Predict the 3D structure of the following.
Amino acid sequence: MESQELRRRFLEFFSAQGGPATGGKHTIVPSSSLVPDDASVLLTTAGMQQFKPYYTGEADPMSSPHQTLGGKFLGSRNAVSIQKSFRTSDIDSVGDETHLTFFEMLGNFSFGGYFKEEAIRLAHEFLKEIGLKIQYVTVFGGDKEVPRDEESKKFWSELGVKDIREEGREDNFWGPTGAEGPCGPTTELYINNTEVWNIVFNEYYCSKDKKLRKLEKPGVDTGMGLERLAMVVQGKKNIFETDLFMSIFSSIIEIIGDKPIEKLRVIADHLRASIFLIGDGIRPSNKEAGYILRRLIRRAMLNHYKYIGAGLDSKFYLSPAEEIIRIYGKVPDYNNLREEKSVILEVLQKETDRFSKTLEKGLTEFQKLLSREKNKKKYAVRWPPKNLRKKSAYTINAISPKEAFDLYQSYGFPLELINELLAEHALFIDREEFDEEFRKHQEISRAGKERKFGGHGLLLDTGELKAANEEELKVVTRLHTATHLLQAALRKVLGESVHQAGSDITPERTRFDFTFDRKLTDEEVRQIEFLVNEAIRQNLDMGYKEMPFQEAVALGALYSPREKYPDVVKVYSARNPETGDVFSRELCGGPHVQHTREVGGFRIGKQEAVSAGVRRIRGHLLKTS
């Protein structure tokens, strides 16, 4: 049974299950973006993330609009989805037989509809339907806070499962890492010694002080990795032998030959993950999700270069990338990969071009640093690190943290890549020491910016807006409003794929970064500038309303997925008071002018590239008499 058939069977099975007594049929919900609404996480890591407000009680599936459904209600207390997911913690482990960065999570969910008995019955029935027999299950064995899960044991036993094993909190109790939220005991299903399904029973709420209280409406949150399921169903030894990877491997081998399998796995996994990240609007950069994307592309290139040899062709990735897009573009939820194919390939090629130009020089410099006599004398560290140390730990030599940071600065080698190179010589650079060098660099850069700004104290410094006195505050307030109008105009001219990627406003100018893959034409710049000034001329009302965050999102208000928003937010709208037409609508804390004519006038100055897929515009206010 191929993976696409598994996807179809899973969705069809659960969409047919349920009724009034258990909360209704399971609503099929499309995969949400890898860029989550939840600001507490960098990327979407599980299927439950888009449903989190239902578990916490912030939203109700019967009456609250759901973003992935285009603002429609879920209309049921049960849902089923196949969620694209990403685990940054597994990047360094990719290359073995089990670890991935990107994966697909099959899940069924209930928000007060059904609980343990029904969840266990459905899991058992689905696996039986696709011809799989459960080898054994695990349940929570209990501790001082939470009793043994006798109910799950009973239900499994009634279904004929004889091997039921009890495990502790580490293995069979799910809770939010370092944060508050729903949690509870789990039951895990094993086939051929492989864990294929994890069912979480959210019946508690963990507060900030780590105390548990019972939820009024317990819920079910399940997750089954498609890659592992395919491995078991297809009778393969590991996930990389399934149909999800074999044609990708073939496209890579066709170009570079049959090289060490561990390196092929790294290239295939990282390329697949990169394509999905780019497809969801992420672009290579030096921070947050963009940094993860850049690290994946460069780590794949480094593995290619080191084990395939010199003369790296930056276009090597295009053929395997096209194969990945062909495979996954057939899946309805991933149509965007086909639609964005040219953009995805262009972003990949630009990033590989950029890194290939410096890779060989960087590796040469690395070897020089490693062999320098001073390094053998001056920089001694212990291996393994403190947390792995034993009595037999011994002193070895390494390049200094400053030299490692210079490699990062000059050649784009992240610390993780530097440590991978060093590991071949049983060396490493301590993360804390490297971060200290990074901090020193930031302090120097910050001091330079302050001197550039005039060295005075700031009346306002939100990170985005800076003003030293009341007069400057008036100017940045006008520029802040102009920036809202600018983003709206960009989306009207260039398309709704444009999103804010950064902003910085001083009394001299606004600097606005946005996702776009090419230089704007003169005509596009003219149109954008005209729209902004036309919105100013119309003297639109610039008011705000307070509303729940989910309601604001359903209304279409623009917001930054990286920001953490309160339950109730301010939504600023530039609105025509006569017609009611809205020119721009954003979540924002202010400050803004009351009417757009107060901005005075706006012109676009310089435009430039920030990174692959991200452009920057500098805008200025027109002088008023």
Summary: Residues 341-371 form the longest helix (31 residues). Residues 405 and 434 are 7 Å apart (CA to CA). The chain has four domains: 3-233, 245-358, 372-446, 466-621.
